[in-house]
Amino acid sequence: CCGDEGSKVHSSDERRTSAVDVFVEYNGPVKDRSCTDVLWLLVFIAFCVALAYILAIAVLRGDPLRIVNGMDNYGNTCGVRNEDKVPDVPLSGKDMTNLSLLVLQDAVGYKRYCSDRCPSGYVLTPFRRCVLNNHPITIASQAINISSSFFEEAAEDLSVCWRELIYMCLIALGLTIVVLILMRFFTGLIVWLILFVISLACVGCTAYLWFLWYVKRRDYPKLPDDDPRKHSNEVSYWLYGAIAATVVTVIILLIILVMRKRIQLTAALFGEAGKALTAMPLLFFQPTWTLIFLCVVVLGWIAGMLYISTAGHPALERATGLVYLKKDSLLLVAPWFHLMALYWLTQFIVSCQYVVIAGSTATWYFTRNKSELDSPISTSLYYLVRYHLGSVALGSFLVALVKLIRAILNFLEKQLKTRFESCTFLLKMCQCCLCCFEKFLKFLNRNAYILVAIHGYSFCKAAREAFTLLTKNCLRVAAINSVGDFIIFMAKVGVIVGTGFAGYELIKLKVEVLHYIWVPLVVGGIFAFLISHCFLSVYEMTIDTLFLCFCEDCETNDGVTRPYFMSANLMAFVKNSERAIRADSKRKQGNDT
């Protein structure tokens, strides 16, 4: 897709004789690197220029007030002075400054006009539309009125509890810091405690199901004979449930038993991630900048979509005598282009964060004397902007393209839903497959960005090397992704639950003046999730980077002639693994003789 070397100014492989030479003299990510995937950076820039051109046309031809205020059947926007007349429409170009409400005369809004107040028999919606107050609009208008009153009451509750919401955010921040400290110093204990609780819960649930089956089976002869088949089926259901629970429990226990050494690696990597983030605490601020850029992109996208959806020339439809917005071919494809821009830009921003975190973490890992770290975050950011924006553009484009295809299939499914049921089933299957492929692609991209940050590879070469490393260490990857992701998930849940309980204790004193006590609790829980996610997402990416650095370290060095870069904890894990391998080989040789 991009070539290993063709898209680079110089090949990084040409500047090194072997992987051994690199790591013997290695003191962080490769410094002598060159631009990667320049072609895709030019494509990304051209895409942004095309997007700016389309948005400029949309701004010139569009008017968001056509949606916000509404437009009548003659092309007049309500609430403003309309100066442009539509050809052959004498009632167009009117001054509607004092007529700010749009009256919908039928259920679908086909007949509409501007007015200063709602006529008799109409109700006003929060969107400044006057709709009929009878069937079939009654249900919709009631729902709108109910939702309007609910939002007003919820806003009042939030205004009453604004101080408690600030306290909940501070509590969430404090709990997140406590979780990070626990992960830093008590990682092994937390990992094995969680696995012990899971195992105990599985065994307890299985034993309870077998006990219930025993009770049902014991009491079966004593039951009345009104419906013996029903009681027999009930006993069978409990038996099937107990058997299924037993199978699941045995599988989980076997997985924990077989993967216990890989789980030890997970615990060690959690500890190393804590050390890395302690040495580089500013990494925790990376999601803040990412969130700011994402908010700017999303808000800009919403504004652009308003202009695109209202862009066009008012024209007369001869068949009905009503005015509609006539769009040219460019404006017809603009919404899909704009959607692709949303996907690509958001993925590009998130990918930049991945590269910065990966480069900083790799610098920390491959620096023997940690006290000699020299601005790893700013250096990683410089490498990203100077050399690797093209690789980030390519990786984010692939994910964005899959997302766009899924959106198109979803649109086709809704269009064909009522007429071709067989087609909709196939489209759903395609969407499911694409969803799985998208998750795999995101996972591969994250690991490819790590190698881009470490070695300065082009994206395709980095993805290929990352895939090779991951397949060689598939059991370790499974342990880290299953156990590690579950630990991070439980940490987020713990922060949210703890914040919720603390928030309830703070808010319960105001329960008499609140409409819904759960509204500020839910909002506080959302803030708690965002805070914990910002910190723990950095932790997750740091662990992924350390794992690939660990794999590279093991592949390249032997710990004797070429010393490892890993810490003493990871070194102990490697030595224990080597001893276990030697013991297994001796045992096999003894069995053969």
Automatic annotation (TrEMBL):
UniProt membrane topology term: Multi-pass membrane protein
Annotated keywords: Membrane, Transmembrane, Transmembrane helix
Transmembrane recorded as keyword: yes
InterPro entries: Choline_transptr-like
Chain segments annotated as transmembrane: 38-60, 165-183, 190-215, 235-258, 291-308, 387-409, 486-504, 516-539
Molecular functions (GO terms): transmembrane transporter activity
Origin superkingdom: Eukaryota
Compartments in which it is found: Cell membrane; Membrane
Cellular component GO terms held in the UniProt record: plasma membrane
Family of this protein: Belongs to the CTL (choline transporter-like) family.
Summary of the function given for this chain in its UniProt record: Choline transporter.
Protein name: Choline transporter-like protein
UniProt organism field: Ornithodoros turicata
Origin organism lineage: Eukaryota, Metazoa, Ecdysozoa, Arthropoda, Chelicerata
